[in-house]
Amino acid sequence: MRIRYNRETCIGMFQCVNEWDSFEENIDAGKAELAKADEVEDGIFEREVPEDVEFEAKFAARVCPVDAIEVYDDDGEQIV
Fold it and tell me: How far apart, in whole angstroms, are the C-alpha atoms of residue 73 and residue 80?
């Protein structure tokens, strides 16, 4: 499973931070940060999600009020 995070879309509500500890608050920027992620496009970050935290990653995506977080299965299909 893979997670994709659009930092430019983020409005800094930090709800994702409460759901998965790979998201961290960046108060100075007013945005969340996705730890251990690679910037694949300008402002777009991706990383693999370990099996043992898939539920938390999906929930982080679901609670984002601006849909800045997407989750994809191993076949590339968007699941959240």
Answer: 9
Domain count, the chain: 1
Position 37 in a domain: yes
pTM above 0.85, yes or no: yes
Block residue for tokens 């659009």: 6
Q: Alpha-carbon torsion 52, 53, 56, 62, what sign?
A: negative
Instruction: Give the residue-averaged pLDDT of 48-55.
Output: 98
Asked if 7 and 48 touch (Cβ cutoff 8 Å), the reply is no
Looking at residue 62, its pLDDT comes to 98
Q: How many CA atoms lie within 13 Å of 44's alpha carbon, on the beta-carbon side?
A: 8
Whether residue 77 lies inside any domain: the answer is no
